[in-house]
Amino acid sequence: MQSTSTPVTLLGLGAMGRALAAALISGGHRVTVWNRTPGRDDELVAAGAVSAPAPADAIAGPGPIVAVLLGHASVHETLDPVADKLRGRQLINLTSTAPDEARELAEWAAAHGIDYLDGGIMAVPAMIGQPGSSVLYSGSRSVIDEHRDMLELFGVADYFGEDPGLASLYDFALLSAMYVMFTGFAHGAAMVASAGVSARSFAARATPWIQAMATGLPGHAAFIDSGDYTAETQSLDFNKSALDAITRASHDAGVPTTIIGQVKALIDGQVADGHGPESFARIFEGLRAR
Ligand code: FVH
Question: Is the CB–ligand 1 distance for residue 18 below 6 Å?
Answer without folding.
Answer: no
